[in-house]
């Protein structure tokens, strides 16, 4: 059973309105992808940083030749976590989270608000116990043009509603 929720940046404190489209389904594949160690044989531009623990912020820098950073953390079934990526003035932060089978279970661009309106934040109840991969990157991934320093934080529980204005999300 799945629940899909569509909302705006800032949740109930947000001010944006507009049309949206939700597409859901199961991709057709002949050979299912086997889970891999996030640090093994990463492609150019992708760096496996290591483990991150709740309550301990980590700093990094997104650059044109190093634009995807992977972090792992252990989660429990039904655990509520909030992942926040706060970028400096030049970075349009973008976040994703993968489950133990490398399935994208959430992604976000800009709902973290922040001083620039380009911070990313994911609040999610984890579906099962296991190792999760956080993808810290920039909007547009390899085609993106922003770069800069960031701070990544994982916290237990729900986020505090932002009061700042956020930008539009998506690639």
Topology (SSEs and partners):
Elements: E1 46-51, E2 58-62, E3 68-75, E4 80-87, E5 93-98, E6 104-109, E7 120-125, E8 130-138, E9 148-156
Explain how this protein is built.
- With 171 residues, the protein is mainly β.
- It contains no helices and 9 strands.
- It has a 5-stranded mixed beta sheet, with no helix packed on it.
- Strand 5 (93-98) and strand 6 (104-109) form a beta hairpin.
- 27% of the residues are buried.
- Residues 32-36 have low confidence and may be disordered.
Shape descriptor reads: globular
So what's the oligomer here? single chain
Q: Count the strands?
A: 9
Mean pLDDT: 80
* Strand content range: 35-45%
What are the segments in which pLDDT stays under 50 over at least 5 consecutive residues? 32-36
| Biggest sheet record | 5 strands, mixed
Q: Write out the strand line-up for the largest beta sheet, numbering strands in chain order.
A: 1-3-8-5-6
The helix/strand class is: mainly beta
**How far do the termini sit from each other?**
28 Å
Amount of helix: under 10%
Provide the succession of SSEs: EEEEEEEEE
Number of helices: 0
Rg, Å, rounded: 16 Å
